[in-house]
């Protein structure tokens, strides 16, 4: 194998690739079985049907506290003609669950018994045969089928099996998967301190994520040690796995068209490549191969691509091995809050945040990068955009697959607008005191937040829009852009906004007037953000043409993003909040103290969730945590501002 750059074979659609996969691997019946104890069998798949070896109950027992009697001895009793019974002869005291005395077939509840003395009782109504008596086999009859083969044992099943006299069961062995992380850039988190991480090195995580996904599907995994980009070592590891008892092999990384992506060649040398490239995003570079009738996958190296590839191919194949139906997520109808473009010819798995606003569930798209694992951890759902659709229209209903329970979506406070670090503290405080409630935020800038309120797709918006005429914040914009919509304006924080620069200020930047220098590179916030409006206002005051600023057209959506750009050295300066600079140990040149407010529609203001949010904002705990970030004042926090 050489290092010449790969080219994709004819790429397949997701449907075509899955058809090829399932046609090539009709894997039902390939797993052996093992006997395990019933308590240890939860989550396992029965390899054989299970029939009861014991009736339950296996004796006649009382279902009530009372007296055991022979029903025929009670006939004729009535309110006007009570019948007397002798304890130990005609009646026997009995408790729930106790064995029925010989020659009795009914139980009269103790509250229907009149006690005359220690040896005599009286009843005013007759009993009928088997009244309040649990019969032999009432629950389970010996030899009856308890569970068929391929049934998945649940905690409930344990009780039925043990009650039926079954203490061990035959279950399918777990599919065994070898996960091989490949790449010369990878380092093991257990073997490298963070301070030793060099530029270009990456902590290897995919194998652990994929391994745990294997376990969640009912399989078991072994993680191979990291293999550098050495095709012979990779080939040897795969060859050894195929000869052993592994049912499947996942090679992680090396599946795309790069010059050091060897997966396709390894599979070609040892077996057959069935699919190289699928028209999905993320996940396009996935490789599906067959070696000695065993499935071998080339899993893309980007985390989200790896997850999507697993869920569309590997997970379903494990289910097939276990003779189980493919796992399906609950789907709900949602409405995107804005237009979402998508490529024709590619099926896209779009990660979204979800929240119930009024009588609809709104969907807020997350960043689409396949390397951003947080777009999965933060997502509430996935919208699948078909390959024949060019994009999604705003507010047009589509289906989303839920990644969280619907109850979580219904208990999300949706905030759209300007980014601020205190929203993270607010989200954490909400979950700390109200575990079923979440804060779902989307950072689209202050103007974007007001437009979201206008369209009715959020519960509140974060805003810090400066009125350049009178120096006030937000009020004039609310009056202009939200006419006729009743809102409350609540201050969250006062914060320091300024220039974020590298430690020591190597370029000797003094203020915004230096942004036009030829030796300075800048990164901007997006149009419509309060920070961008502030910048443009100051540039106008200083008579600086934005066109002369190197990087003015490059945009990010959060204060932390522009601070990271400075930290990485890709730019010399950005405009953002002090808290972002402090968090990354960067220097800061103050420009202005601004007012960051929450704009809350009156229709939501009195709801229980918003009142909880306001209570937390006004708490001393929240204010103290905010102040520790630096660059914030909470003197107005929680105040309702007159509009």
Can you give me a brief rundown of this structure?
25% of the residues lie in helices and 28% in strands. The chain folds into 5 domains: 14-28 and 175-321, Molybdenum Cofactor Biosythetic Enzyme, Chain A; 33-56 and 138-172, Molybdopterin biosynthesis moea protein, domain 2 (Alpha-Beta Complex); 61-134, Beta Complex (Molybdopterin biosynthesis moeA protein, domain 3); 331-449, MoeA, C-terminal, domain IV (Beta-clip); 464-641, D-Maltodextrin-Binding Protein, domain 2 (3-Layer(aba) Sandwich).
Structural write-up:
- The protein has 643 residues and is of the alpha/beta class.
- It folds into 5 domains: 14-28 and 175-321, 3-Layer(aba) Sandwich (Molybdenum Cofactor Biosythetic Enzyme, Chain A); 33-56 and 138-172, Molybdopterin biosynthesis moea protein, domain 2 (Alpha-Beta Complex), CATH 3.90.105; 61-134, Molybdopterin biosynthesis moea protein, domain 3 (Molybdopterin biosynthesis moeA protein, domain 3, Beta Complex); 331-449, MoeA, C-terminal, domain IV (Beta-clip), CATH 2.40.340; 464-641, 3-Layer(aba) Sandwich (D-Maltodextrin-Binding Protein, domain 2).
- It is built from 17 helices and 38 strands.
- The longest helix has 19 residues, at 303-321.
- It is flat, with a radius of gyration of 34 Å.
- Residues 1-5 have low confidence and may be disordered.
